[in-house]
User: What shape does this take?
Amino acid sequence: MGTVTYPNPEVERYIHQYFVPVQFNIVERPEVMDQFNSTWTPTIIVQDADGREHRRAQGYLDPQRFLGELALARVKAAIDRHDYQAAQQRAQEALEMTEGDPVREPEALYWASVADYKASNDVNKLLHGWRELLNEFPESEWAKRAEFIRG
Assistant: This one.
């Protein structure tokens, strides 16, 4: 990722706009693998200032998939903080950044629906979003998590 993903101008801009990046050389500091409960590199962990983890990804990610991961991390962090207005805004960005990604786009739609529901307390917003998820990505893991609404 150090030769393709991190040097990408869009990746650099996004990281510097929203994150404080920290990178460890595990050859020089192997204890970091245990400290962060990781057995594989690269491992991307998004934590807040209090050390609460909001997202984790392991293995190589090209720039587009990496940006999708970061966008989803921002949505999840806002939801975890109960800042549902921010989560709604970030979810729209995540939907744009994950468009066409068969793994991350369904997850973005799932969390966008959750953010809409939590911000409004209108269960119809959740159901509408999850129905869209079920229609657009019926075989995805995220559709399977929302499948119970059919019954």
Q: What stands out?
A: The CA atoms of residues 130 and 146 lie 6 Å apart. DSSP finds seven helices and two strands in the chain.
